[in-house]
Amino acid sequence: MRATIDSLRDMGFVVELDGDSVSWTWEGTGQPDPITAKPLLEELKGQKAAVLEFLRQEEIDSSDVVHIHSRLLDTDLWVVPDGWVGELDGPVYTDSEIRHLDKLNVTPDELRLIHAAKMAIDGELKWDCQF
């Protein structure tokens, strides 16, 4: 997907998110070569979900990813923006998960249990229950 978007951008197209849609506009000089552009634009249309995911990820600045060593959990972990889908080496918590954990005001032992559960299910913590 990246190659298709990069090719269109190199030609002079602006490819970006527009809410839950993908928009592209020509900002190059002259007119785009339809023989080159048409198949690339058709590929974007046919892979909308992948294009949306790529563009959303592209919008998230990697400087928003924070690496932390938790002495309490005795592990390195990452805090990432909500919606972040990259791969990191170690446990990952979203901004929302951290905010909710803070609001719970749990004990260190409870936090260790929550962390162990998150690692066991390899998922995201949801907050529609009470402890």
Structural topology:
Layout: H1 2-11, E1 13-18, E2 21-26, H2 34-46, H3 48-59, E3 66-70, E4 75-80, E5 92-94, H4 95-104, H5 108-121
Parallel strand pairs: 4-5
Antiparallel strand pairs: 1-2, 3-4
Please tell me about this protein's structure:
With 131 residues, the chain is α+β, with helices and mostly antiparallel strands. The protein has 2 domains: 2-59, no CATH class; 63-121, no CATH class. It is 45% helix and 20% strand. It is built from 5 helices and 5 strands; from the N terminus they run αββααβββαα. The protein has helices at 2-11, 34-46, 48-59, 95-104, 108-121, and strands spanning 13-18, 21-26, 66-70, 75-80, 92-94. The protein has a 3-stranded mixed β-sheet with strand order 3-4-5. Strands 1-2 form a two-stranded antiparallel sheet. Helix 1 (2-11) runs antiparallel to helix 2. The longest helix is centred in the C-terminal third of the chain and has 14 residues, at 108-121. It is elongated. It starts with a helix and ends in a 10-residue tail after the last helix. The mean pLDDT is 86.
